[in-house]
């Protein structure tokens, strides 16, 4: 596309100052344009048009936008040139401008946005696009973009997407407006630190006691008749001294942690570490995405190949950021749930001695009869029963 090269002519009403500034900035814009610095050329041409508006400068401004990959801003400048020039423009020149206008329109991408719930405000690259549902697709330049859905409560949902020239991309974004409707949990009633654990009637489990405060088990009670009956079974046989039960070992704090709690805790730690790792990777991908977007926005490229490379880099970074963020969120959620489960298992796990530990031997063992009498706790509470083996 050729650019306007003729100098700006002065008018009778112009004292010369505005025209001189416009000519200087116009010439500066031509130098930058020929050197491939389209961002500075754009600034110079816009300054020239501000100093003294002339339709021909609009063509140069539009061409700079085309070179910078911003067709949405090139189109209105081409249209404005045709409108302001009117019949003064030659037929061949009009045909050339109309062809450039058609090419710019064809390179504009569009976002067809489906947003739920309806009624919330949709933003594209920070600019308000309207309330959902949107009647028409939103026209955007090729490259990376950010679509946001903002609710009245301030909650937002964000989708990042990269589009190519002329692409019609479908974007779905859903907000979480129901979060404000959830009931707020009430305060947990405080309990006294000195309260005594209470168990229901008929519950034979040992109540929980703080570590180190276990009471010594009450020795079994046997009536004199029960002891005499056990001793008279074979009074003529020599007996060996009753075997003393091995001393009960006091269990430490770690011994009271159930195996399931160790497993859940270990899994939680691993999942949290995985979530943190993918979170760092997501942040790195986000940084790459922002760098690519900034480079495209600033026109930091010298050819269409470099522009396509930046766009591809932005797409890869956007995809990687979305994937890593999902894995990080899921891993952290599962890890926290596993750690909470481990703590819950420690809290609710009973510290109850087994029936075998509570059984106390009270009778002698004889060589010939192999008789054995023991006192066994009954489920009624503090009573004991006699169990014999012959």
Radius of gyration: 42 Å
Supply the number of structural domains.
4
What is the makeup of the main sheet? 4 strands, antiparallel
Number of strands: 10
* Number of helices, where a helix is a run of at least 4 consecutive DSSP H or I residues: 9
How would you describe what is shown here?
The protein has helices at 17-34, 38-51, 55-67, 71-85, 91-106, 224-231, 259-298, 304-348, 355-358; strands at residues 109-116, 121-124, 127-131, 138-140, 143-150, 156-163, 168-174, 360-361, 372-377, 384-389. It is an alpha+beta fold and 390 residues long. The protein has a four-stranded antiparallel sheet with strand order 3-2-5-6, with helices on one face. Strands 4-1-7 form a three-stranded mixed sheet, with no helix packed on it. Strands 8-9-10 form a three-stranded antiparallel sheet. The N and C termini lie far apart (112 Å).
């Amino acid at each position: 596309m050729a650019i306007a090269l003729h100098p700006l002519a002065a008018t009778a009403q112009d004292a010369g100052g505005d025209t001189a500034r416009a000519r200087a900035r116009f010439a500066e814009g031509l130098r930058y344009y020929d050197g491939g610095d389209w961002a500075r050329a754009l600034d110079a041409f816009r300054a020239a048009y501000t100093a003294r508006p002339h339709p021909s400068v609009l063509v140069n401004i539009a061409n700079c936008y085309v070179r910078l990959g911003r067709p949405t801003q090139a189109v209105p400048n081409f249209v404005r040139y045709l409108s302001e020039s009117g019949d003064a423009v030659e037929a061949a020149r009009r045909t050339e401008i109309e062809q450039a206008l058609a090419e710019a329109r064809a390179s504009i991408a569009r976002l067809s946005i489906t947003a739920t719930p309806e009624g919330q405000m949709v933003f594209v690259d920070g600019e308000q696009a309207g309330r959902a549902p949107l009647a028409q697709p939103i026209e955007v330049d090729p490259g990376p973009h950010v679509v946001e859905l903002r609710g009245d409560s301030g909650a937002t949902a964000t989708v990042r997407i990269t589009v190519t020239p002329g692409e019609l991309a479908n974007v779905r974004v859903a907000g979480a407006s129901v979060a404000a409707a959830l009931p707020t949990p009430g305060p947990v009633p405080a309990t006294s630190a000195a309260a005594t654990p209470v168990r229901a009637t008929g519950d034979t489990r040992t109540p929980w006691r703080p570590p180190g405060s276990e009471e010594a088990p009450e020795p079994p009670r046997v009536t004199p008749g029960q002891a005499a009956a056990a001793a008279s079974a074979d009074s003529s046989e020599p007996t060996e001294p009753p075997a003393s039960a091995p001393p009960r070992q006091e269990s430490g704090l770690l011994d009271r942690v159930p195996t399931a709690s160790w497993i859940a805790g270990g899994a939680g730690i691993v999942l949290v570490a995985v979530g943190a790792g993918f979170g760092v990777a997501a942040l790195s991908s986000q940084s790459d995405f922002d760098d690519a977007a900034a480079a495209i926005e600033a026109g930091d490229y010298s050819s269409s190949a470099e522009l396509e490379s930046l766009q591809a880099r932005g797409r890869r970074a956007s995809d990687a950021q979305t994937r890593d963020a999902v894995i990080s969120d899921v891993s952290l959620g599962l890890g926290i749930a596993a750690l909470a489960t481990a703590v819950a298992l420690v809290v609710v796990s009973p510290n109850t001695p087994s029936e075998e530990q509570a059984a106390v031997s009270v009778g002698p063992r004889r060589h010939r009869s192999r008789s054995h009498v023991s006192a066994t706790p009954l489920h009624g509470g503090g009573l004991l029963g006699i169990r014999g083996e012959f």
